[in-house]
Design goal:
The chain is built from two helices and four strands. The protein has 77 residues and is of the alpha+beta class.
Length: 77
């Protein structure tokens, strides 16, 4: 299963649409405009077509470097 972010295009997501998404997929995290959903790709495609007011994108994670990046020398002026 993969994670996808559903973001409502308006000021705040309608409660009935948020509830419908929660019933059809596992919601990992949420805010008033966004849901982090865990489901397979086929179900995500069906949800995206059933809820056109929501933007759907795959979750992206970034690894934080263990060592801080250091400047080797100041720039030439």
């Amino acid at each position: 299963m993969e994670r996808y972010v559903f973001r409502f295009r308006g000021p705040a997501a309608p409660k009935e649409q948020s509830d419908a998404l929660r019933k059809r997929a596992k919601v990992v995290d949420s805010s008033p405009k966004q849901l982090l959903v865990e489901a397979d790709a086929a179900e995500i495609e069906r949800l995206a077509s059933d809820f056109p007011d929501w933007m759907v994108s795959k979750e992206v994670t970034y690894k934080i470097p263990e060592e801080p990046i250091r400047v080797r020398k100041p720039p030439n002026e």
